[in-house]
Amino acid sequence: VSDTDASRTIEIHEALLGKNEALAERNRAMFRARGLTVINVLSSPGSGKTTFVQRTIADLKGRRRIGVIVGDLATDNDARRLRETGAPVVQIVTGTVCHLDAEMVARAAERVGLDDLDTLIVENVGNLVCPSAYDLGESLRVVLLSTTEGEDKPLKYPSMFQTADIVVVNKIDLAEAVEFDREAALRAISDVAPGAQVVVVSAKTGVGMEAWYACLEHRVGR
Ligand code: MG
Ligand code: ZN
Questions:
Q1: Which chain residues have CB less than 5 Å from ligand 1, an ion?
Q2: What separation in Å is there between the alpha carbon of 148 and the centre of ligand 2?
Q3: Sign of the torsion angle spanned by Cα atoms 212, 131, 161, 14
Q4: Residues near ion ligand 2 (Cβ under 5 Å)
Q5: Of all helices (H) and strands (E), which one includes residue 204?
């Protein structure tokens, strides 16, 4: 790749991000006008985002009316799992695109039926790299780190963790089996994202989930 090719690639990328910024602001204004809380959930593949969202919907039933937009490269498996909660779910199949952008979310939001909701959860494509650069117009950004991933993930993928409002350490039920070093993980998170609130949960067993809900209510108000 020549220098001109490389700088041209950077220019195109910056133009795309600029366009996304404008659309994200439009989303944010629309969400705000509706009084809708929008939560962007990010992590690497296999960190338990879908289980986390399922448990959140089930536990907050009667407290929040939640709809979901879920992005995956392929399959609607996650959407089918999430629909079992009874919540309205729209799947975005991105094909080769490894992140959601503001335009995809705007189009999916039209289909999910926002009138009946006060909360929209966006389960992003499993990827710790570029989704961090795409503002979707969300009110809250939640990044999951599972105990099976290694304590230094935040140090390796700082830009993702730096943009988090809340970091959720998930799969704490597996901590012992995988010799998870809790102190090292918490240190890595606070090194990279000193402003983020951290909660430690098992979305599978439900342990710690009340702390996440308290955090959510505190952040977005009610
Ligand atoms: Mg998923
Ligand atoms: Zn991407």
A1: 49-50, 78
A2: 23
A3: negative
A4: 98-99, 130
A5: none
Instruction: Give residue 60's identity as a one-letter amino acid code.
Output: L
Q: What is the pLDDT of residues 7-61, one digit of tens each?
A: 888 788 888 889 999 999 999 999 999 999 999 999 999 999 999 999 999 999 9
Could you tell me the pTM of the whole model? 0.94
In angstroms, what CA-CA distances link 76 with 39, 69, 83, 93, 188? 20, 11, 11, 7, 34
CB 104, CB 137: distance < 8 Å:
no
Measured CA distances, 79 to 16, 49, 111, 155, 164 (Å): 28, 12, 14, 31, 24
Q: pLDDT for 148-189, tens place per residue?
A: 999 999 999 999 999 999 999 999 999 999 999 999 999 999
